[in-house]
Write a structure and sequence with these properties.
The complex is a heterodimer.
Chain A: H1 5-8, E1 20-25, E2 37-43, E3 46-53, H2 61-65, H3 74-77, H4 85-100, H5 106-134, H6 138-159, E4 168-169, E5 172-173, H7 179-203, H8 207-213, H9 221-226, H10 231-236, H11 243-246, H12 267-290, H13 310-315, H14 317-327, E6 339-346, E7 349-357, E8 363-369, H15 371-376, H16 379-383, H17 390-398, H18 402-406
Antiparallel strand pairs in A: 1-2, 2-3, 4-5, 6-7, 7-8
Chain B: H1 3-14, E1 20-24, E2 27-31, H2 37-46, E3 52-60, E4 71-78, E5 85-92, E6 98-100, H3 109-120, E7 123-125
The chains are: A alpha+beta, B alpha/beta.
């Protein structure tokens, strides 16, 4: 395939153009983080054309979504953006609950909100830490990962799993949180600003970091909208759009926070937007954890959508019937024969699921709107005219997660 | 411009019976025939301010209850000024599922259209670079079609077997 590349990019390999040469970047390269491949056409060290070649990690998640029920598929969406797994779970069950017409309980809303914001910090820490790592700043990366470890511990306390918690369920959560979890979140809220300040002090005025990121990979506001960008990438270009404010879901209407925007749209402003969003997330977590409502985490068992707990199954006939109903493959959920799109503001941008339902408990079509996929399409546009060494800076600032990119 | 105003304008522009609508929860949908798709989307973008193509994908309605057409493709548009959302939906059929490409309106459609082509075989006319995106180029089937099995012998026969010496 590399041999055809020049033809495909529309450059004749003629006398005049024979100074151009092709560089294959990836799919196995330490700076691509995951399995990405770029075919770069170079003039000296300047990039004339970048052609991404994706699909190395394609594993048919959406096909699986048509064969697993609403609760089983949560283990698969976990593995899409594995950097912020619970955000994917929340998005998936947000769409499913919209389809079923369920209003989840206030306590569940708050716990999900706290998790969604922890995941935003989780994702941004990786993005900012790895951006520094690729540009040669190893210490900031370690400071960031030290805090990510705390979030893994919080996930483990809540669900028993660090990496892929599968914590949400239709109409509720796997299980309620305990005092230990609340103490851990409070400790995180207390300690995080210091670590954040450390990373800021290492990078924000760092001469090398600024030289490598300022003015690199500029995405204008018009381009950002035209190329369907959302999330921190669009906000760094001046698009003041955040689904938490525009289409409020979960507990966000009750909470006070700001939407962080920048105007330049280069790698530096994408980094700065992410850094500031983390502090806003901490504000949200702090408000939510101190105002955590009491009450049940699941919707009422008589609504026939939520898996009953062990006590209800063993001690009551309703619970037993309900348990059978949801787990027998010919019963399950009774959905409307219709389709719905539900989206949340995931750390990377708008993460939506378009669920087509045919009346059974298995989605007829479970389409993911993956932010990484859409943002990676912009990459060729951002790269033209830059140096080879800028590839890693732009790639790091777009935060492409290949598992979500290829699904 | 809000959904209702846009709908009113669409009806004035294209005739009252050419624009069918449906609603479910907060999703408001406009159903258009595939030949009216491009003018409708162009009008929505240019006159009604829907400047962000948030999502474009499709589904195969082969076994869907009461479905008359085979492939459905949806376009979810957002007005970034007031946050209004609209779903435009259209259907195409075998043997030659074709739709006009909206790459000229939203460049974001580039990869999303390629993915629909890759997964369902819907051809987008006017797309600058319509190739497979997730599956290998040698792949011959469309894996998200409902007549493509989830489990089976696989696609091994589609790829040449190389020995270590040849590779």
């Amino acid at each position: 395939m590399p041999l055809e590349t020049l033809e495909r990019v529309g450059l004749e390999q003629s006398e005049e153009k024979d100074f151009l040469w092709t560089l294959n970047f990836g799919p196995q390269h330490p700076a691509t983080h995951t399995t990405l491949r770029l075919i770069l056409t170079l003039d000296g060290e300047t990039i004339v054309k970048a052609v991404p070649d994706i699909g190395y990690l394609h594993s048919g998640f959406e096909k699986l979504g048509e064969h697993l029920d609403f609760n089983q598929y949560v283990t698969i969406v976990d593995r899409m953006n594995y950097i912020s797994p619970v955000a994917n779970e929340i998005a998936w069950h947000h769409a499913v609950e919209k389809l079923l017409g369920i209003e989840i309980t206030p306590r569940c809303k708050y716990i999900r909100t706290i998790f969604a914001e922890l995941m935003r910090i989780h994702d941004h820490l990786l993005c900012c830490g790895a951006a520094a790592l690729d540009l040669g700043g190893f210490t900031a990366f370690l400071y960031a990962f030290n805090q990510r470890e705390k979030i893994y511990d919080i996930s483990e306390t809540a669900s028993g799993q660090r990496f892929h918690p599968s914590y949400t369920r239709v109409g509720g959560l796997l299980r309620d949180i305990d005092d230990d979890w609340i103490a851990q979140v409070r400790a995180f809220v207390r300690d995080f600003p210091k670590a954040h300040a450390d990373v800021c002090r290492l990078l924000n005025r760092n001469r090398i970091f600024i030289d490598r990121t300022r003015g690199i990979g500029i995405l204008s506001k018009e381009e950002a909208i035209n190329w369907s960008c959302t999330g921190p990438i669009a906000r760094a270009s001046g698009v003041t759009r955040d689904l938490r404010k525009d289409e409020p879901y979960l507990a966000y209407p009750d909470l006070d926070f700001k939407v962080i925007c920048a105007v330049t749209g280069d790698c530096m402003s994408r980094y700065l937007v992410r850094m500031d969003e983390m502090l806003e997330s901490i504000k949200i977590i702090e408000q939510a954890i101190e105002n955590l409502p009491s009450g049940p985490i699941n919707v009422d068992v008589n609504d026939k959508v939520v898996v009953p707990n062990q006590q209800a199954v063993y001690r009551s006939i309703e619970g037993l019937i309900q348990h059978f109903e949801l787990f027998m493959t010919n019963r399950q959920w009774q959905t409307p024969v219709d389709e719905v799109y539900g989206a949340i503001e995931s750390p990377n941008g708008e993460l939506g699921f378009y669920v087509v339902a045919d009346g059974t408990g298995v989605a007829y079509r479970a389409r993911t709107r993956p932010p990484s996929f859409i943002h990676f399409a912009v990459f060729p546009l951002l790269m033209v005219g830059h140096q080879v060494s800028d590839v890693v800076a732009v790639l790091g600032s777009l935060n492409i997660i290949a598992a979500e990119l290829d699904r | 411009m809000t959904y209702d105003e846009s709908l009113k304008q669409l009806r004035e522009r294209f005739g009252a019976d050419s624009v069918a609508t449906s609603e479910f929860r907060d999703n408001r949908r406009v159903h258009v025939a595939s030949d009216k798709l491009f003018p409708t989307l162009k009008y929505l973008k240019e006159a009604c301010g829907f400047d962000l193509l948030a999502e474009l994908s499709g589904a195969d309605y082969l076994h869907y209850p009461d479905a008359k057409d085979r492939y459905g493709v949806w376009y979810i548009l957002v007005n970034t000024n007031d946050g209004a959302r609209i779903v435009v939906k259209t259907f195409v059929n075998d043997p030659d599922p074709r739709l006009p490409s909206v790459y000229s309106l939203w460049h974001g459609a580039d990869w999303m259209e390629r993915e629909v082509f890759d997964m369902y075989g819907v051809v987008f006319e006017g797309h600058p670079d319509l190739r497979r995106i997730l599956m290998p180029e040698e792949f011959t089937a469309y894996p998200l079609r409902k007549d493509y099995p989830m489990r089976g012998r696989g696609e091994r026969h589609n790829f040449p077997e190389l020995t270590r010496a040849e590779g």
